[in-house]
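Researcher: We plan to redesign the surface later, but first we want a full-length starting point. Tokens attached.
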């Protein structure tokens, strides 16, 4: 029995220097099993079954591989350690021979995963989670195929032979994604600038004192500089695309503020004029201010002379309708 137990421990745990007497051998085997189960630590790093199991998160979308192997190894060792009498203990080791050898062989990949491969796995999962914030906006086939390949690897029950490919796939995806994001950012940058210029033009047309305009100019510049800065630092498509709506909303709020200040200044001017000779009554023209960008959103893309004529005719009809209700149309 002593030789059989020593052979099992040699094959399962590569431990050949064990005692030849039953009492000391039991202590040696028990010590080795406890090291494997919960006590092995090297340079303050815990390298045992229970420490590995603590790394698994319940309900993780992309769980670490190998949990079942560790659970089965834990159950096998705990069952052996339940035996206190020497012969029962040795019989338990002998009965668990196949399970111990299977655990020893299968756990090699799990231990190597936690030692050298987990960081690649974690980086890949982080990339997948980050992409979730952008996938609605990304249609590039190469980007989609690359992130799918990454997902397929991290979802494997035994991905150990494929994990080495993750860094290269991740770098490939980042390169494609960054280029796509920069292209989208340039398009959105044009939208932000367009809204900024619309706000500036609207302010230039407003009947507001120079002092009033000065503060508003600063406000317009500050608001859109902030949007441009946030756009340059955006890391996901959602944050880039949302800047279009934010720019449009910022312009609308600034237009409302300009209107309010113009109305306040006009009220003060009218109040001051009441105590003076009003002079001849001036005809008040009804002015309509139109945001050209918003006004033309419904127009289709122009791809031919026929499309051009259609858009021009539609634009003319809309303006004629506005002129029926207004004396002056101002664009901003």
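Model: Full-length starting sequence:
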């Amino acid at each position: 029995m002593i030789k059989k137990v020593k052979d099992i421990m040699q094959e399962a745990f590569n431990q050949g220097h064990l005692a030849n007497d039953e009492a000391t051998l039991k202590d040696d085997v028990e010590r080795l099993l406890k090291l494997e189960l919960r006590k092995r630590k090297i340079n303050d790093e815990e390298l045992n079954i229970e420490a590995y199991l603590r790394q698994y998160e319940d309900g993780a979308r992309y769980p670490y591989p190998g949990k079942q192997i560790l659970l089965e190894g834990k159950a096998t060792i705990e069952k052996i350690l339940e035996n206190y009498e020497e012969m029962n203990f040795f019989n338990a080791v002998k009965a668990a021979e196949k399970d111990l050898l299977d655990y020893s062989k299968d756990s090699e990949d799990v231990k190597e995963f936690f030692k050298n491969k987990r960081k690649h796995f974690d980086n890949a999962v982080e990339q997948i989670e980050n992409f979730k914030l952008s996938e609605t906006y990304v249609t590039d086939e190469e980007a989609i195929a690359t992130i799918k390949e990454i997902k397929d690897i991290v979802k494997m029950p035994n991905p150990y032979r494929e994990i080495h490919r993750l860094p290269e796939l991740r770098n490939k995806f980042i390169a494609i994604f960054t280029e796509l994001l920069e292209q989208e950012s340039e398009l959105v940058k044009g939208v932000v600038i367009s809204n900024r210029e619309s706000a500036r033009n609207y302010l230039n047309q407003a009947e507001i004192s120079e002092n009033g305009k000065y503060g508003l100019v600063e406000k317009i510049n500050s608001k859109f500089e902030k949007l441009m800065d946030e756009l340059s630092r955006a890391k996901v498509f959602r944050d880039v695309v949302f800047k279009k709506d934010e720019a449009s909303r910022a312009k609308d709020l600034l237009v409302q503020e300009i209107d309010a200040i113009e109305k306040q200044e006009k009220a003060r001017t009218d109040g001051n004029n009441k105590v003076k000779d009003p002079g001849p009554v001036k005809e008040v023209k009804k002015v309509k201010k139109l945001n050209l960008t918003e006004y033309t959103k419904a127009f289709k893309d122009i791809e031919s002379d026929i499309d051009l004529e259609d858009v021009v005719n539609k634009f003319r009809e809309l303006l004629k309708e506005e002129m029926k209700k207004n004396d002056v149309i101002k664009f901003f």
